[in-house]
Write a structure and sequence with these properties.
The complex is a heterodimer. By secondary structure, chain A is mainly alpha-helical. Chain A has a single domain, classed as Cytochrome c oxidase-like, subunit I domain (Cytochrome C Oxidase, Chain A, Up-down Bundle). Helices cover 67% and strands 0% of the residues of chain A. Chain A has 16 helices and no strands. Chain A is globular. Chain A starts with a helix and ends in a 45-residue tail after the last helix. In chain A, 63% of the residues are buried. Chain B is of the alpha+beta class. Chain B has two domains: 2-24 and 38-73 and 95-123, no CATH class; 130-249, Cupredoxins -  blue copper proteins (Immunoglobulin-like), CATH 2.60.40.420. Helix content of chain B is 44%, strand content 20%. Chain B has helices at 4-30, 41-73, 90-123, 230-251, and strands at residues 130-137, 140-144, 150-152, 154-158, 163-169, 174-177, 186-187, 193-197, 205-210, 222-228. In chain B, the strands form two sheets. A five-stranded mixed beta sheet of chain B has the order 3-2-1-5-8, with no helix packed on it. In chain B, helix 1 (4-30) packs across helix 2, helix 1 crosses helix 3 and helix 2 runs antiparallel to helix 3 (90-123). Chain B starts with a helix and ends in an 11-residue tail after the last helix. Classes of the chains: A mainly alpha, B alpha+beta. Chains A and B meet through helix 3, helix 9, helix 10, helix 11 and helix 12 of A and helix 2, helix 3, strand 7 and strand 9 of B. Bound molecules: protoporphyrin IX containing FE (HEM) and copper (II) ion (2 copies). Protoporphyrin IX containing FE (HEM) is lined by residues 31, 34, 37-38, 59, 62-63, 66-67, 71, 126-128, 372, 376, 379-380, 384, 422, 436-438, 458, 461 of chain A.
């Protein structure tokens, strides 16, 4: 095993693992940024930096890296790459070299994102990059533009690849209703990426054109319009939350079915009601991010209704997930513990989103820590817990070894407690009026103790994450041999050896008429 | 937590009053008849917020209890070694889609209807009002009164009179957020946006803080609203207005008179 083999690999499993390593590195860095922000906010006035721009750069990199370089690549890069060919019984993806190109681009994107900390005037435009500020700042907006473009391109070519793979390379006998829920979810996510990433690309390109080449797309003194950017940006970036949500829910379905040793509850409801419903609604709700941006009133009211309607497909998916527990036979190894945790975190996150769907409530809540708390629950933390659940779950498959169960569980509980301290408190002070993206909060001295509590909570939460990652590293190097199917799962990826060889199976598998990935009970 | 009766009533309310409440959204837009008493958006906000919180708390608690119970009840034990999910009949499978869909939609409509009504309160400004124009810039709120008087980061207003801000920006996005009045809206170059609020208690001050990331010093962009009694306000306003006229005539700067916006 040498480095060159890994860099030039076209094996989907290795590409996947490269994605995992890169995205975890990104997570670590963005996590450190979060800690820096939390420490800075632990007292009024300057704490560890007296330059607001430093804080703004931390916040920019935290948001941009967490979403674009951690969650999306971990979910649609690592999990999709590693699992999809194995789940559908294919030897590899349809275009292995395109796949390799995608992971290379991803690394270029990550390196660009990291250069943020070394260039003289790093971007300070927040991950949303709204003009006019992004076009007049002394910060380097071009870095933002190119990071987004490259990571977006990596993701798009991955999308084409996986859609083709699933359509043409399923094992003989594997009909559309025998796909793992994870495969369906990922397909949905890639359809969204293919449709919407180009819009994001357009938006971020136009701000750099405005800034560096003197165009006036967003400059009203020359016929441009400030709001156009926000519409373009959220036209992508709302669907982007489903690009994160769908695969992470897919991961949860796999885990819950395996550890409950049970059929997925009402499979067709989950796929055709839940996943299809989300893909259908994803593109018509973006104005809920512009409720206090001066949008036309009829759009705010119209998209209140579409946004509230999202509760239907999301609710169906949650019913499917929780329903899978019904009459199951559940054990609580670490992956299942994380998955169960997400059920509660996501519930809090999802329900606290309902007030944010209503413009007349958002008129107070928007741009406060309430929003920050809400989206960390629903996406950042729920998604990260699901990613950790999934890494633990497939760990024996991709390393061939076992992690340590005790440390796994301990890490979960520590993170779970810390998470709730931090993000519940955020929502609480948000309702009381604490605005987001604040380096300092002299006008709100009443929130000092809450901020200190959150700083403490984030230290606790961080310790839990570190325990998990150390657990993986130690397990991958010298964990006990795991066996091919330690969880007793029925899904196809567990029928090959661990770790699977190049080509996955000695001879391509086929599936029987009455096989499903969740057929635990003989009927 | 909250009083149980209220919870039950709200749960029932969700289902029953959906259609009634939804119908109720229309008369507010029609706005005919005698001038109604001014509704204070901040009070109405607190009211709807409480209702929605009760609503989502019920859903959340019910869902969480069911989940916790399932996790506990179906843990692996001797004699329960594999799952036995019942095979759903076609009718049951469809029912599991249709019934939750209707329940969710009913709750959605209930919230949407109430939200819309509150929205009308926020967007329909009472006719008897004080109109201020606000220009934001990095990093201050610059107010202009109807008589041309200008103030920065401090807005004196009379108690009991609705205040309308017409806002624009000379550079980046800013947002005039007044937590106590439960209201905010962006200001930006090239467009005029508005918000209104109802100051009530003379002698009170209310923090104003920028809620749109506008640049390096974003978190320091703050001001206050000072509520005076109507008499104090009038005295102050007339005095400052007179001063303004003096300086103006003295310097004969008639051209500097700011254009009146209506
Ligand atoms: C692991 C623990 C985490 C902590 C302690 C944390 C903390 C924070 C804090 C303090 C802020 C800034 C609030 C402000 O000044 O407005 C923030 C913003 C943000 N976080 Fe996290 N975060 C964490 C994880 C994540 C994860 C996993 C994601 C993944 C998507 C994420 C995405 C974001 C985004 C998108 C923002 C908004 C950035 C912006 O305002 O432009 N965070 N977080
Ligand atoms: Cu959204
Ligand atoms: Cu600001």
């Amino acid at each position: 095993m040498n480095i060159k083999e890994w860099i030039f690999t076209t094996d989907h499993k290795r590409v996947g693992i490269l994605y995992l390593i890169g995205s975890m590195a990104a997570f670590a860095i963005a996590g450190v940024m979060a800690m820096m922000m939390r420490i800075e906010l632990s007292s009024l006035g300057p704490t560890i930096t007296d330059n607001p721009t430093t804080y703004n750069v931390w916040l920019y990199s935290h948001g941009a890296i967490m979403i674009l370089a951690f969650q999306i690549p971990a979910l649609t890069g690592f999990f999709a790459n590693f699992c999809i060919p194995l789940m559908i019984g294919a030897k590899d993806v349809a275009f292995p070299r395109v796949n390799a190109l995608s992971v290379w681009l991803f690394y270029v994107g990550v390196i660009l994102a990291l250069l943020t900390f070394f260039v003289p005037d790093p971007p300070d435009v927040m991950w949303t990059g709204y003009p006019p500020y992004s076009t007049i700042t002394t910060g380097n907006t071009a870095f933002y533009t190119f990071t987004v473009l490259i990571l977006g391109f990596a993701s798009i070519i991955g999308g084409v690849n996986f859609l083709t793979t699933v359509v043409y390379m399923r094992a003989p006998g594997m009909g559309w209703t025998k796909l793992n829920i994870f495969v369906w979810c990922t397909l949905g996510a890639f359809v969204l990426q293919l449709i919407f990433v180009p819009v994001l690309g357009t938006a971020v390109t136009l701000i750099s054109l405005d800034k560096y080449l003197g165009t006036h797309f967003f400059d009203p003194t020359n016929g441009g319009d400030v709001l156009t950017y926000q519409n373009l940006f959220w036209f992508y970036s709302h669907p982007a939350v489903y690009v994160i949500f769908l695969p992470f829910f897919g991961v949860l379905f796999e885990i819950v079915a395996t550890f409950a040793r049970n059929q997925v509850f009402n499979y067709k409801m989950v796929v055709f009601g839940g996943i299809f419903g989300i893909v259908a609604l994803a593109g018509v709700v973006w104005v809920h991010h512009l409720y206090v941006s001066g949008m036309a009133d009829w759009l705010r009211i119209g998209m209140m209704i579409t946004t509230l309607m999202i509760s239907v497909p999301v609710g169906l998916m949650l019913i499917g997930l929780v329903g899978t527990l019904y009459k199951g036979s559940i054990t609580f190894e670490t992956p299942m513990l994380y998955a169960s945790g997400v059920m509660f975190l996501f519930l809090i996150g999802g329900l606290t989103g309902i007030p944010l769907a209503v413009p007349s409530l958002t008129i107070h809540l928007a741009r406060t820590y309430y929003v920050v708390g809400h989206f960390h629950y629903v996406m950042a933390v729920a998604g990260t817990f699901a990613i950790f659940a999934g890494v633990y779950y497939w760990f024996p498959k991709f390393t061939g070894r076992m992690y340590n169960e005790f440390w796994g569980k301990l890490g979960f509980w520590i993170t779970f407690v810390g998470t709730n301290i931090v993000f519940w408190t955020m929502m609480d002070i948000g309702v009381q009026g604490m605005p987001r993206r604040y380096y300092d909060y002299a006008q709100f001295p009443q929130f000092v103790s809450a901020h200190q509590l959150m700083t403490l909570g984030s230290i606790i939460l961080g310790i839990g994450f570190v325990i998990a990652v150390v657990n993986w590293i130690v397990g991958a190097i010298r964990g006990p041999k795991a066996g091919d199917n330690p969880w007793g799962s029925h899904s196809l990826e567990w029928t090959t050896v661990s770790p699977p060889p190049h080509g996955n199976w000695p001879s391509p598998p086929s599936v029987a008429e009455n096989w499903t990935p969740y057929g635990y009970e003989k009927r | 937590m909250r009083n149980l009766k209220k919870l039950v009533a709200a749960a029932a309310g969700c289902l029953i009053s959906t259609s009634i409440a939804f119908a109720g959204a229309y008369p507010a837009t029609a706005g005919s008849g005698a001038p109604p008493a001014i509704k204070d958006p901040a009070v109405e906000w607190d009211h709807l917020w409480r209702e929605v919180i009760i609503d989502i708390t019920i859903i959340g608690v019910v869902f969480a209890l069911i989940t916790a119970w399932l996790l506990w009840r179906y843990r692996r034990r001797p004699g329960n070694e594999t799952g036995h999910a019942p095979k759903l009949s076609a009718a049951a499978a469809v029912a599991w889609v249709v019934i939750p869909t209707f329940v969710f939609l009913a709750d959605d409509l209930y919230i949407a209807a109430n939200g819309w009504q509150l929205w009308n309160v926020y967007r329909e400004v009472p006719a008897d009002r004080l109109e201020i124009s606000l220009e934001t810039g990095m990093y201050s709120f610059d107010y202009t009164y109807p008589n041309g008087l200008r103030t920065q980061n401090e807005l004196k207003v009379p108690a009991g009179k609705p205040v309308l801000l017409r806002m624009t920006s000379r550079d980046t996005l800013h947002n005039h957020f007044i937590p106590d009045f439960r209201v905010k809206e962006d200001s930006m170059p090239g467009r005029i946006t508005y918000l209104w609020f109802l100051p009530k208690e003379a002698g009170k001050q209310h923090v104003v803080s920028c809620a749109a990331y506008c640049g390096v010093m974003h978190s320091y962009m703050a001001g206050k609203i000072v509520v005076l009694s109507p008499e104090d306000y009038k005295a102050w306003y007339d005095k400052e207005g007179a001063k303004l006229n003096d300086t103006k005539s003295a310097a004969e700067r008639a051209t500097a008179m700011p254009a009146k916006k209506s």
